[in-house]
Design brief:
Length: 223
């Protein structure tokens, strides 16, 4: 019995994995890690692609709005003025002249949308700051990126205000050259892509000389 008390119990047996089982476990761990890394990379790439798409679309929309929704005022000027039925007289007591004038207004529309212009007084002809004729233009439109010629006609006639308020009418008639100025205002609505519209106004100022001898307009200049 004394000898039995000194007997050391044997340790329980340990189970060691086989070499092929350890290799499969390592492969499983590596596959799991690689799978997670690939998922993270794909998620990161999708986010980058999404942001890139948003940036590209924003740039395209900005360029589109700058090109197609940038409203410009139309430009217009007088052209091809004809003088008809010119009559003038110059005496000690009274000086006068009367005539009919026909011509065209050229309207240039540089917008990507059409312009619907309103019925208004387009041109006011002046002599020495006194109105002697007005031309009216009816409602119409100018297509996008195009020009249009609009015919006008008016009668220029002096009145007694010129005779009593200004003394150079008689001398101008004697020189056979009258200096006229004109003022025009073009009002319309530009409509782009049938979505957005905006009112635009353009101003025109012209100077010209009326040659009483040749009965023609000379040195027409508009700005």
């Amino acid at each position: 019995m004394a000898q039995d008390s000194h007997i050391i119990p044997l340790a329980p047996p340990r189970a060691y994995p086989k070499s092929d089982q350890g290799l499969n476990l390592s492969k499983s761990i590596n596959y799991y890690n690689n799978h997670n890394n690939n998922k993270n990379r794909k998620s990161g790439k999708c986010f980058v692609y999404f942001l890139s798409t948003i940036v590209i679309l924003s740039i395209i929309m900005l360029i589109f709005s700058m090109v197609f929704f940038r409203f410009k005022s139309p430009s217009f000027e007088l052209d091809h003025i004809n003088v008809q039925n010119l009559r003038f007289s110059n005496s000690t007591n009274s000086s006068s002249f009367n005539m009919n004038m026909g011509g065209e207004i050229i309207v240039d529309n540089d917008n990507f949308g059409q312009i619907n212009y309103q019925d208004s007084s387009m041109s006011v002809f002046l002599y020495d700051n006194v109105t002697i004729g007005i031309a009216n233009v009816n409602v119409g439109r100018v297509e996008a990126r195009k020009s249009k010629r609009i015919g006008i006609s008016l009668q220029l006639r002096t009145n007694y205000q010129l005779n009593y308020s200004y003394g150079n009418l008689s001398s101008d008639i004697n020189s056979r050259m009258l200096k006229l100025t004109s003022f025009g205002e073009f009002r319309g609505k530009v409509k782009a892509m049938k979505i957005i519209s905006k009112h635009k106004t353009s101003i025109m100022n012209c100077t010209m000389n009326l040659n009483l001898t040749s009965q023609a307009i000379q040195d027409l200049l508009c700005s």
